[in-house]
Amino acid sequence: METLILSSDYRDIQTAANIIKTGGIVAMPTETVYGLAADALNGKAVRKIFKAKGRPMDNPLIVHISDISQIYTLVREFPKRAQLLADNFWPGPLTIILPKSDRIPDEVSAGLDTVAVRFPSHPTALRLISLSSPLAAPSANLSGSPSPTTAGHVCDDMNGRIDAIIDGGDCDVGVESTVITLAEDPPRLLRPGGITVEQLRSVIGEVIIDNAVTAPLAKGEKAASPGMKYKHYAPEAEVILLDGNNEKFRQYVNDNGRDGDAVLCYNEDLGTLKLPCIPIGSENDTETQAHRLFSVLRETDKLNITRVFAHCPPTDGVGLAVYNRMIRASGFQIIKL
Ligand code: AMP
Ligand code: MG
């Protein structure tokens, strides 16, 4: 199949909307990462997303809306806490899981009784939704690889596999949305993202952090969010996280580095390391690190690197989102220094 490359002009978005309305699939920019979208109420169209990504069918998708009124047809109930979260964080990088209505096809919810809903803030995504329908969309990468934050990344993975790509430039946040389930009490954070757990607690009080956010699933443990089961976000190179202060980090890298290795380093490390360096941002600027994370992971593929050392990120604020992606990209290889 030939993949159309579209701009964010009104007419091009209209073309994309027509593709969606006739059952096709289109990659669209959002403020988090690029999404691969289909009409959320068309199960047959949604199946194409799983095929194009090579995504296991038991991993559900997020439904994107462009107007709060659309949610009432997607969920069975909209509790007070959902209203509070929506008032404070929508439109934006937060996904809320609620009991699903009968209108949600099984493909979207992967057979679960719940549906994940997000109201994004990106103008192109909003326009595409309002010209077509609520859109089911996971990240627009091949299953398992780093999420795309530019149209070029999408093209690398999806050219020839999907109907169209809307080029909307760089994604702002750079990591996928925060996912919280309100289908149980107390609410549980399933995936950290641009909206921090501290922000969620300040609005609705108690929020539990699911074990799988910071640790591998124990043998036999069931994933609360099916997406948490799989190795994720991994470039071709082996990623090794180093947990220790900057001095120990530099020492370790300089003592153990060899040909074919590189470092995802902080800006402050530049000039202190003997290996090729790919800076990910300043040490305390976790927002920039989140913004650059997937892009630098993809860069290592282009440079033919075999091993990548990286700092083990902090676990507060947006750091938790970076940490969560990095431990999966590394397959949980963390060396305590
Ligand atoms: P992505 O495919 O990268 O957009 O990620 C979507 C995430 O939302 C995955 O981790 C899914 O497992 C999670 N998700 C979507 N719907 C549900 C649901 N109904 N219950 C639990 N997790 C969900
Ligand atoms: Mg994904």
Largest sheet geometry: 11 strands, mixed
Instruction: List unreliable stretches of 5+ residues.
Output: none
Mean pLDDT, all residues: 95
Bound molecules: adenosine monophosphate, magnesium ion
Number of distinct beta strands: 16
Q: Which bin fits the share of residues in helices?
A: 25-40%
Q: What is the 3D form?
A: globular
| Percent range for β-strand residues | 15-25%
Q: Can you list the strand order of the major beta sheet?
A: 1-8-2-3-7-4-6-5-9-10-11
Give me the strand/helix succession: EHEEHEHEHEHEHEEEHEEHEEHEHE
Count of DSSP H/I helices: 10
Please state the structural category: alpha/beta
Radius of gyration: 20 Å
Q: Give the N-terminus to C-terminus distance in angstroms.
A: 50 Å
Produce a short descriptive summary.
The protein has 337 residues and is of the alpha/beta class.
Task: Give the SSE layout.
Elements: E1 4-6, H1 10-21, E2 26-28, E3 35-39, H2 43-53, E4 62-64, H3 80-89, E5 94-99, H4 106-109, E6 114-118, H5 123-131, E7 135-136, H6 151-158, E8 164-166, E9 178-181, E10 188-191, H7 197-204, E11 208-209, E12 238-243, H8 246-256, E13 261-266, E14 277-281, H9 286-302, E15 307-311, H10 319-329, E16 334-336
Describe the model.
The protein has 337 residues and is an alpha/beta fold. It is 30% helix and 19% strand. The protein is built from ten helices and 16 strands. The strands form two sheets. It has an eleven-stranded mixed sheet, with helices on both faces. A five-stranded parallel sheet has the order 14-13-15-12-16, with helices on both faces. Helix 7 links the parallel strand 10 and strand 11. Helix 1 packs across helix 5. The chain is globular and about 60 Å long. It starts with a strand and ends with a strand.
